[in-house]
Amino acid sequence: MASFTDLQLEQLEPGIWCCTIDRPKALNALNGTVLSSLLEAFAWLQQQDDVRAVLLTGAGEKAFVAGADIAAMQTMTPLQAREFSQLGMQVMATIEQFPVPVIALVNGYCLGGGCELALSCDFILASDTASFGQPEVALGIPPGFGGTQRLARIVGKNHALSMILTGERINAAEALRIQLCNQVTEPSQLLELGLSYGRKIAANSPTAVALAKELIHKGQNLDLQYGCQMETELFALSFSGADQTEGMTAFLKRRSATFSLS
Ligand code: HXC
């Protein structure tokens, strides 16, 4: 267990950690303090020996994250808004580039900067009470933590335009239909669903998982030819570590592979 301001980190099982944004009275809205805590928490996790999967969620039963903190933004100058956006962008990039999968457990409102935070995770699991939206235009601003870019890449330009320009919320079933989230379950089952994904990931080679995550995220911004070249290079690189030997030997000897973090 490690605590940061308005954020908790807890090891739930060997290799599986849960990061909880803990500002339930403000529906876990992201202010500068929470964003800095997220950066500190992921830097701290990177120093730990046994991190195979991270679940990211919001405290309380109502919200994952209801957005960037509107009270904190209300009087910002353009320069302060720029710095705030850059801080958020840094958090999203840190999660996206984190060498371990990060799974968003969306347990309620997932709006604005909260939706952008979930989009920076590797995938999204949602409770059937969750709702997603990018309501920024109603506040006189466009999204500022990467929503116009990541949402369009994940659900396609048409759904992104519809969500961002109307500002309307969509429910979990609709989020599943447009592939904004990967799976929906009852609120009481959400953590267990996250754990089940975490356990499957944790049983695999951490090196191979990290390489595959990197390839998929970087490949989104490359053409097919370069993406495939990069895949060849990282595929070859995987043969220089112990996991490839262990994984293939275990298969051929008909036993389970045991991968340790190097
Ligand atoms: C600050 C927030 C907040 C937010 C909720 N709260 N969302 N505070 N920033 N984004 C606070 C409320 O002020 C209130 O505080 C408490 O949380 C409970 O919220 P209520 O509104 O009373 O709850 P409810 O009526 O159930 O409505 C829930 C809600 C609504 C539909 C989620 O709170 C809402 O619309 N919130 C704003 C959603 C939004 O517009 N998000 C995008 C923000 S812009 P008190 O003290 O009164 O109890 C953004 C930009 C990102 O994210 C990019 C930045 C660079």
From TrEMBL:
Q: What is this protein called?
A: Enoyl-CoA hydratase/isomerase family protein
The record, for Pfam families, names: ECH_1 (PF00378)
Extract the InterPro entries matched here: ClpP/crotonase-like_dom_sf, Enoyl-CoA_hyd/isom_CS, Enoyl-CoA_hydra/iso, Enoyl-CoA_hydra_C
Keywords, alphabetical: Isomerase, Lyase
Q: What Gene3D superfamilies does this protein map onto?
A: 2-enoyl-CoA Hydratase, Chain A, domain 1, Lyase 2-enoyl-coa Hydratase, Chain A, domain 2
Q: Name one GO molecular function term.
A: isomerase activity
Q: Which PANTHER family match?
A: ENOYL-COA HYDRATASE, MITOCHONDRIAL, ENOYL-COA HYDRATASE-RELATED
Signal peptide from the UniProt entry: none
Q: Where are the transmembrane segments?
A: none
Report the family membership.
Belongs to the enoyl-CoA hydratase/isomerase family.
Taxonomic classification? Bacteria, Pseudomonadati, Pseudomonadota, Gammaproteobacteria, Oceanospirillales
Highest taxon above the source species: Bacteria
Q: Name one GO biological process term.
A: fatty acid beta-oxidation
